[in-house]
Amino acid sequence: MLFRSGGTAVLRYGNTRELTLGLEVVNAQGEVWHGLRGLRKDNTGYDLRDLFIGSEGTLGIITAAVLKLFAQPTARTTALFGLDSVNQALALLSLARERCDARLTGFELMSDFCLQLVERHFSTLRLPFAQRYPQYVLMELSTTESASDAIALLESVAEHALEKAMAHDVVVATSLAQAQTLWSLREHISEAQAAEGKNIKHDIALPISDIASFISATDGALQQAFPGCRMVTFGHLGDGNLHYNVSAPVGQSDELFLHEQAAINLIVHDQVHRFGGSISAEHGLGALKRDEILRYKSGTEMAMMSAIKRALDPLNLMNPGKVV
Q: Is residue 99 classed as helix, strand or coil in its secondary structure?
């Protein structure tokens, strides 16, 4: 099956849906839909390709796909910014988009607590700054020009960001090894939070302009309800996809903490809905969120989804019990 994943390079290349040009699908009746046309434009009826992408195997089995490809960049460079707030990160994102356009391929937001966990559980990984900041942004540029051109452009963005108080500190990688070291901080967050203990994960999407307000409001609501809980907040700021995870207070057992999962999910997902977001950005509904989504989607929307399921899979053979 194909999910609507994006990843760290979604800013430049798009998510799975945008990268998929055609599909081959076996339906519930065992018939094969040969949709491997690979066309950029096809306005000859309903878009069956988009219907099957992200349906989690509930409508048919995807057996082949035609994917859009891009030329490999000749150069990449990376910078790590230290910031006071998510609002500063949003201002930095606007600047990077304006100055770099399609060359901006990565823009990852990470809270300080995320990187505290990385440093605690991976002793070889350390922040390159003399002091700590509440938030960090990892920015990557990719180009078909020379590495020196990419570094010069990123240094120009960094200089402007510092002058305009969009950031307080920045380190620009001048080699592939330095860039990989910076990316290792981001890539080890999930492993570090797992090593810290059980955590309650949320894969959410929000309007980019509302992310700062969402984090502030939801952090406050969770602290009021569950004092001492620790927020592991990171994600692809450029497409509004946050990994908004909650770790137990220091000293609380995993068992006791996980007993509160339903209540924590309710607070987070209600806030996501309040800000016009989605409770599943990439990972799907599956069985765990199948009933929970009823709280946030209208009856009309759910009825249309159910009607599609009944029409394509009347015997409920395809991944039953999931999504609808």
A: helix
Inter-residue contact 12 to 104 (CB < 8 Å): yes
Strand locations in the chain, DSSP E?
Answer: 20-27, 32-35, 60-67, 75-83, 104-111, 135-143, 169-172, 199-200, 203-205, 230-236, 241-247
Count each helix (H run) and each strand (E run) in the chain, helices first. Answer: 12, 11
| Pairing status of strand 203-205 against strand 135-143 | unpaired
Specify the pTM: 0.90
Give Cβ neighbours of residue 80 (< 8 Å, ≥ 6 apart): 127, 128, 136, 137, 138, 139, 170, 171, 182, 185
**For residue 89, which of 61, 111, 116, 109 has the smallest C-alpha distance?**
109
C-alpha span between 179 and 81 (Å, rounded): 13
Tell how far CA 248 is from the center of its chain.
22
Could you read off the pLDDT of 279-294 as tens digits, one per residue? 998 888 888 888 889 9
Largest Cα span, the chain = 63
Residue numbers in the chain where pLDDT is lower than 50? 1-2
Considering only CA atoms, which of 95, 98, 77, 80 is closest in space to residue 151? 77
Quote the CA–CA distance of 143 and 191 in Å, as a whole number: 30
Residue 109, SS3 per DSSP: strand
The answer to whether the beta carbons of residues 127 and 185 sit under 8 Å apart is yes
